[in-house]
TrEMBL record:
It comes from Rhodoblastus acidophilus. It catalyses: a hydroperoxide + [thioredoxin]-dithiol = an alcohol + [thioredoxin]-disulfide + H2O. GO terms for biological process: cell redox homeostasis; cellular response to oxidative stress. Gene3D superfamilies: Glutaredoxin. The keyword 4Fe-4S does not apply. One of its GO terms (cellular component) is cytoplasm. PROSITE patterns: THIOREDOXIN_2. This is thioredoxin-dependent peroxiredoxin. InterPro entries: AhpC/TSA (IPR000866), Peroxiredoxin_AhpC-typ (IPR024706), Peroxiredoxin_BCP/PrxQ (IPR050924), Thioredoxin-like_sf (IPR036249), Thioredoxin_domain (IPR013766). Residues 5-156 form the Thioredoxin domain. Thiol-specific peroxidase that catalyzes the reduction of hydrogen peroxide and organic hydroperoxides to water and alcohols, respectively. Plays a role in cell protection against oxidative stress by detoxifying peroxides and as sensor of hydrogen peroxide-mediated signaling events. The lineage of its organism: Bacteria, Pseudomonadati, Pseudomonadota, Alphaproteobacteria, Hyphomicrobiales. The keyword Disulfide bond applies. Belongs to the peroxiredoxin family. BCP/PrxQ subfamily. One of its GO terms (molecular function) is thioredoxin peroxidase activity.
């Protein structure tokens, strides 16, 4: 099992395929604050609400020199449709192999109606321009979450 990441730890490096085309990695955000949010699945009610909330505040994040990036195990094609449908203006990374999800400790055993399964624990990491984790929100409830993250970014 991967080490549980804590505030002050260096953010694990990554390079993943993104919506549209190409790939993005941690190195692409050097010198910027990075809001890295992990979500279970495109087009589900909670994930859609969370994406729309981050999207609505995107200009305010940009004003603080912060980028927002969403990550899920969905394929790039799904991200393309999700991003287009809701006019999302930030990148979505596809981690079908779950290597980044595991490195960040968000691929966990979950339980629903007594059935155990593996899935993404909705989690957000705030990473400083030097690549250190400065805040972590685990088991996120989507309502008001993007605004809470923005407040933390502004306080940096």
């Amino acid at each position: 099992m991967a080490k549980v990441l804590e505030i002050g730890d260096p953010a694990p490096d990554f390079t993943l395929p993104r919506d549209g085309a190409g790939s993005l990695g941690l190195k692409n955000f050097g010198g910027k604050k990075l809001v890295l949010y992990f979500y279970p699945k495109d087009n589900t009610s909670g994930c859609t609400a969370e994406a729309k909330d981050f999207n609505a505040l995107l200009m305010e994040f940009a004003e603080t020199n912060a980028s927002v990036v969403g990550v899920s195990p969905d394929p790039v094609k799904s991200h393309d449709k999700f991003r287009e449908k809701f006019e999302l203006a930030f990148p979505l990374l596809s981690d079908e192999a779950k290597s980044m999800l595991e490195a960040y400790g968000v691929w966990v055993e979950k339980s629903m109606y007594g059935r155990k399964y593996m899935g993404v624990e909705r989690t957000t990491f705030l990473i400083d321009p030097a690549g250190k984790i400065v805040n972590i929100w685990r088991k996120v409830k989507t309502t008001g979450h993007a605004a809470e993250v923005l407040k933390a970014v502004k306080a940096m």
